[in-house]
Amino acid sequence: MNDKLRGYAMFAAVSALLLVVAPLALPGFRLDELAKYLCFAIAALGIGLAWGQGGMLTLGQGVFFGLGGYAMGMYLKLHDAGGDLPDFMVWSGVEELPALWAPFRNPVIALAAVVVLPVTVAALLGALVFRQRVRGAYFAILSQALAAAFVILLVGQQGLTGGTNGLTNFYDFFGFELEAESTQRGLYFVTAVVLGVLYLLARQLVKSRFGRLLIAVRDGEDRVRFLGYNPATVKTITFAISAGMAGLAGALFVPVAGIISPSLLGVVPSLELVVAVAIGGRYALAGAILGAIVMNYGKTAFSEEWAGGWLYLQGALFIGVMTLAPKGAIGVYQQIKDAVARRRSVPAPHQEKSPASLKEEVPA
């Protein structure tokens, strides 16, 4: 079986596992947990595209996750309130709906904003930063500072954003009761399908001419510039696509988890996504997804037994991966596969015949 057919078979197997086996085998609570992991996997896929394929270490992906999540949450709060003031605004003493919230009464505008807002912010930031040839650690620090500033802004606007509590207590999702088991199961299927579609699109993008140019920018930005291409444009487009994925992940997370708050969007959650991508394998899109699912599952399972110990294990995992397996789990798998293939391709050593066997071969 060649690599292309093997890839199709692996995708079909994983799809069957997520869409058939998991809903039948897992109880409702665990299926809801898996849906959250898949939301994080969508955001991690964007990081894998920007960092693994484009060399842009983004430590502020929580900003775009939050923009998409708050856009969805604002619509749901207004829908639950019947177009009046949401409950937290009433508690905060707000008397009139802020102008920023008014467009989100329309579901079409809200759904469009889920992707348009993160893409626009990322495109503007990329156009300003990449044209100045800011890259490497400087870009990582800048994106991290953006995440910190975003959280401070959200926390400081209690009457506008819900402050530290964020947006919660959603009851209806486009005509479906959110607390119903059937609604949550349907949201799981939607999230899994969206993840699969985005993975296929990202994979096709990487294999396209643009994808080859993106990898060339990662490996030698100056050489690409000397060949007549503009690396800033390539990086800005990729960064905007990555932000759009994070925004969509945040929008799906809101009805799945029932909350969107600053604690999910700051520096630490953004770093956790980067660590997950590194553990899975940043040079492979599938590795980014695998790392996000495995690490979030490990976080849940380990925290249930030892709540305070997860951070130590997470740090040890990141250090171990970066020092012993910089290409992550997918890289280790590839090394093992290549070693097995080389062993099979080496011919067996010549077996020297014993004197007894030579004597038998001499004609009488």
Describe the structure.
The chain has 364 residues and is an all-alpha fold. It has 16 helices and four strands. The strands form two sheets. It has a two-stranded antiparallel ribbon with strand order 1-4. A hairpin with a 2-residue loop joins strand 2 and strand 3. Helix 2 (28-53) crosses helix 12 and helix 2 (28-53) packs across helix 13. The model has no long low-confidence stretch (mean pLDDT 87).
Keywords for this structure?
single chain, mainly alpha, 364 residues, two-stranded antiparallel ribbon, globular, 4 strands
Total helices: the number is 16
Number of strands: 4
Mean pLDDT: 87
- What percent strand? under 5%
Could you describe the largest sheet, including whether it forms a barrel?
2 strands, antiparallel
| Arrangement of strands in the largest sheet | 1-4
Q: What is the H/E string?
A: HHHHHHHEEEHHHHEHHHHH
What is the global morphology?
globular
Low-confidence stretches: none
